[in-house]
Amino acid sequence: MGTTTPPRTLAEALRARGDESLAGLLRARPDLLNPVPNDITQLATRAGTRASVVRALEHLDRFALQTAEALAVAPDPAPHDTLLSLLTGDGLDDGEQRDDVGAAITAALPGALATLREQALVWGEDDRLRLVRTARELLAPSPQHPSPTGLGPTVAEATAGMSPGRLQEILAATGLPATHDPVSAVAALSALFTDRTRMAELLDTAPVEALSVLDRLVWGPPYGEVTPNPTPPVKWLRDRGLLLPVSTRTVVLPREAALHLRAGRAHRVPEPVPPAVAAAAERDPQAVDRAAAGQALMALSTVEELLKLWDGGGPTILRAGGLSVRELKRAATALDVTEPIAAFWIELAYGAGLLASDGETDERYAPTPASDEWLDLSAENRWTHLATAWLAATRTPGLVGGQDAKGRALSALGPELDRSAAPEVRRRVLALFAELPPGTAPEAEALLRRLRWERPLRGSAPTTEGTDLRSRLALWTLNEAELLGITGRGALAAQARALLEEGEEAAAARLAPLLPEPLDHVLLQADLTAVAPGPLERPLADMLSVLADVESKGGATVYRFTPGSVRRALDAGQAAADLHAFLAAHSRTPVPQPLSYLIDDVARRHGHLRIGAASAYVRCDDEAVLNEILADRRSAGLRLRRLAPTVLAAQSDPGSLLEALRDMGCAPAAESAEGDVLITRAGARRTPPRTPPAPVPEGPPTPDDTLLGAAVRAIRAGDTAATVARKEPVEGTTGSAPSGTLPRTTPAETLATVQAAAMTGSTVWIGYVNADGAASQRVIAPVRVEGGFVTAYDHTADEVRTYPLHRITGVAELAEEGEG
Predict the structure, then answer these.
(1) pLDDT digits (tens, 9 = 90+) for 341-370
(2) What does the alpha-carbon distance between residue 365 and residue 359 come to, in Å, rounded to a whole number?
(3) How many helices and strands, by DSSP H and E, does the chain display?
(4) Which one of 1, 200, 401, 746 has the largest count of C-beta atoms within 10 Å of its C-beta?
(5) How far apart are CA 209 and CA 262, in angstroms?
(6) Under DSSP, is residue 784 helix (H, G, I), strand (E, B) or coil?
């Protein structure tokens, strides 16, 4: 094909592209690479399949999609001027505003066409633009699937099958000359509807009510229902072909007439320029960074609290997977947040690999060994770990509490929460934030409009909540980014900007100066509370979380000491003297006397009762205490009986007995079979090593440059093998096969041909079957033939390879230039 010959098919258009252009196609549509096409023809066929075209259309922006929609209702092929006219209108109704839109469309159209050409949705020169057939079928109008433009079928399509007599009646009513040729009649009617002057004269004679009917149909849908006895305005339109019958009760406004009424425009509102993201507020960038850093510190504290909550073994896993509603409520209460926010923190810890299933028979969620490593990191590095995991996660906690397609409830940590579009939406939302000046908070609605322009077809189906998935993901992103400290006061923080543009190390370096240094002290107060005026050092925080309960969180954390919390510390192996020393060492205020009395009082009673396994027993040196327990009605369910003056036996297990007696106001301690007090330490339960959940990919991954280069070389070489001219077979030989099939020659002919090619340095075409039985065509330049193998430069693989001669089905010489 000469360089000036226009392509006749999509395959020819792709064949004329350069390697860089083919690589761009495969990068934009990676589904075409699975597997790598054998040649250009197979690539073109695959690019025209319905599934691939739908996927490509879903990735177009609004104006590129509008351009494709205009081509779908344009003649095939369509000149560039016709396409431009469909987008801008014929200019006869333009005002100043329309002139501005037309100029914007004219400026944006080359870029939209370049995008469509790159993705092989449009091919041909500007004077013969063609939309691939599958895309035309998807975007063209039909009664079942109206066109996105709101246009109906052409006059020729709508009158197909109409009787010649009816056509003559329409011509007579419109004042057109009669013709007995149906084709001529349709052409005359089409010419009338596309003639601005004659069409205007016809509509000037229309009743006002008829014009109202046209106004309702002009922008779609173009179909309407009629009764057997239509009203006079509808009858006037039907008699003149402005409404053509689709069925006995349905009529349609033909495309040519609708375009006249629209002033030639295919779309009511062309959108050549992406909508700007308006600013809702301008804030001090430093205040934004500080607010985001404070929220990042709160995020770390919340995740740490969640890990401690499930430290000894978390909630059980539902049979269908995930967390029960009751356990989610319990976690929300413990974290002092709402249930949707608790679901976010749980999913974030799970996605970061800090929580997982323990894999036991009675399966539970628990912290992973990686959580201990995470806790040992500095605060800024812990935050970057969480933020990076959030950016890449396809888990979507915003869905928790909703229902799936079958009406089943979606639970936190359940198997149905992955949405492959989530990472792309998150990054795109934050990228739009980053395009604004530092400290600028964008309007949420402006963000949604921009996202809908960029992907008008992706996730655009309304959900039960009435909002498309992409918009819901964007709104969740705004809320989650604020919770995590990605944004502060509605604007992107500098540390988040560094994370997006430079990586984790840069983000951690930006965040570190904004975080307060961990403190080694608290302030003890007389009301049995301790105030931590900032984040605490890890050993101090861990010990204080055992010795006291968190009462409130914020800029300062308030801990409250209770008998239960002190007993918890004693159960963990601490003695009263250790607790007094700990508080004295880490308090900037004197230890209040009530707190010292509380510790001594609980310590004095702690271990006075001993619980062991009989099934269980209670041992106490004071017989009066045992008498009180036996006389207490609350102990009836324990089925206690006296074994000795100082020993009671129970039918319940030691753990249940221990909790029951604590509920009765006692302070028992568990003991081993040897009589030693058992020490229970926090953080004893961990899952086996677990990896974070892998994000669910959205379609095939984008190939890298190395893979693209190899794929393009393989396609080029395969195309050469499939299309190269071959010499006619010599008389008396089996010869070459028809184009598209493997060549067939005898072993002797194969050996002789490749030996001759090796001697002359020529290139030959072979058919080859590998060890797996897969057949392929290859173009090779033999270098050496010996020992039953031929060593050659393979143009298909762009490398030197060795082929067993017995696997070569046949060989054919390539024709010289000018032959065949």
Answers:
(1) 999 999 999 999 999 998 887 888 999 999
(2) 9
(3) 33, 25
(4) 401
(5) 18
(6) strand
Instruction: Identify which has the larger pLDDT, 696 or 505.
Output: 505
Spatial separation of the C-alpha atoms in residues 771 and 662, rounded to whole Å: 73
Pairing mode of beta strands 610-612, 669-670: parallel
The per-residue pLDDT for range 423-444, each reduced to its tens digit, is: 999 999 999 999 999 999 999 9
Band (537; pLDDT cuts 50, 70, 90): confident
The residue type found at 385 is: H
The 8-class DSSP code of residue 605 comes to H
Tens digits of residue pLDDT in 635-669: 888 888 888 888 888 888 888 888 888 888 888 88
**Band of the pLDDT at 613, cuts 50, 70, 90?**
low
Closest Cα to residue 103, out of 262, 272, 264, 263?
Answer: 272
Nearest CA to 31 among 697, 695, 701?
A: 701
Give 731's pLDDT tier (boundaries 50, 70, 90): very low
Cα-based distances in Å from 579 to 535, 542, 583, 587, 667 = 21, 14, 6, 12, 17
Residue 664, token pair as written in the block: 């009765």
* Structure tokens that stand for 762 in this block: 């020529």
Separation CA 683–CA 671 (nearest Å) = 20
Length of the chain: 820
Distance CA 189, CA 160 (A): 13
- CA distance linking residue 650 with residue 657, whole number of Å: 8
Per the CB < 8 A criterion, the answer to whether 163 and 157 are in contact is no
The structure tokens listed for 480 are 């989650």
Q: What angle do CA 108, 114, 116 make, to 5 degrees?
A: 105
| SS3 letters across 182-200 | HHHHHHHHHHHHHCHHHHH
Say what the pLDDT of residue 403 is.
86
Nearest CA to 346 out of 694, 698, 693, 684 is that of 693
> Reduced to 3 states, what is the DSSP secondary structure of residue 121?
coil
Q: What pLDDT, on a 0 to 100 scale, did the predictor assign at position 817?
A: 43
How far apart, in whole angstroms, are the C-alpha atoms of residue 153 and residue 655?
78
Ordered DSSP codes for 341-385: HHHHHHHHHHHTTSEEE--SSS-BEEE-HHHHHHHTS-HHHHHHH
Taking Cα atoms as reference points, which of 518, 519, 521 lies closest to residue 584?
521
Identity at 601, one-letter amino acid code? D
* Rounded Cα gap, residues 768 and 782, in angstroms: 14
Q: Using CA atoms, how far apart are residues 480 and 473, in angstroms rounded to an integer? A: 10
Range 261-285 burial, b when 16+ CB lie within 10 A, else e:
bbebbbbeebbbeebebebbeebeb
The 8-class DSSP code of residue 673 comes to T
Q: What is the pLDDT of residues 367-396, one digit of tens each?
A: 999 999 999 899 999 999 999 999 999 999
- What is the rounded distance in angstroms from the CA atom of residue 299 to the CA atom of residue 484? 6
The answer to whether 603 touches 576, Cβ cutoff 8 Å, is yes
If you compute the radius of gyration of the chain from its CA atoms, what whole number of angstroms results? 39
Question: Residue 649: which H helix or E strand, with range?
Answer: strand 647-650
Distance (Å, whole) CA 602 – CA 528: 14
For residues 82, 87, 88, 89, the Cα torsion angle rounded to the nearest 10 degrees is 70
State the pairing for strand pair 610-612/549-552.
unpaired
Edge-to-edge strands of the sheet including 529-532? Answer: 523-525, 529-532, 557-560, 549-552
Tokens coding 613: 């396994």
Q: pLDDT per residue over 695-706, tens digit each?
A: 777 777 778 888
Taking alpha carbons only, the member of 648, 643, 644, 653 closest to residue 631 is 648
Please give the structure tokens belonging to residue 509. 């370096």
Band (pLDDT 50/70/90 cuts) for residue 465 is very low
Using CA atoms, how far apart are residues 565 and 753, in angstroms rounded to an integer? 91
What is residue 628's three-state secondary structure?
Answer: helix
- Residue 689, φ and ψ in degrees, nearest 5: -55, 130
